[in-house]
Amino acid sequence: MYDMLSEFRVSEFDSFVDILTLTRGDPLDTFGKMWYPVFLWSLCSSVFVHTCAALVSFGTLRKHKYGKFFPVLLIVMGVVGPVTSGVASSAAIAFIYRASDQVMPPVHAMIWGIGQTLLGAGMGFTRILATL
């Protein structure tokens, strides 16, 4: 019987730098090897976007009594979003690749991770959820 948890070992994960520089020796062929890079790309791209927004926010609101603390909330949301919804969506993507017995190239992991951030930013800018 197929056991997904047996494929999910910490020793299989590459280093943070290897994933972000797309240098990968062995293919992304197990659930853990696929999930981790997609999640890291999602987390890093979200933190980057939210840090840029926090810098703009701080530059604009630096003289406001309480507004100067708003960038801290932006950076926290840049981490909380991928840690909650990013974990689940990265696991869903990795599960689909694994269930179809496909090997995920590292570039696809980058595209899926950054795509999650872009989709979240697009939802925030369009305010489509406010219309529901």
Automatic annotation (TrEMBL):
Alphabetical UniProt keywords: Membrane, Transmembrane, Transmembrane helix
Pfam families: Tmemb_170
Chief location: membrane
Membrane topology of this protein: Multi-pass membrane protein
Protein origin, superkingdom: Eukaryota
Membrane-spanning residues: 34-58, 70-97, 109-130
Presence of the UniProt keyword Methyltransferase in the record: no
Subcellular location: Membrane
GO CC terms of this entry: membrane
Similarity annotation: Belongs to the TMEM170 family.
Protein's UniProt name: Transmembrane protein 170A
Originating species: Operophtera brumata
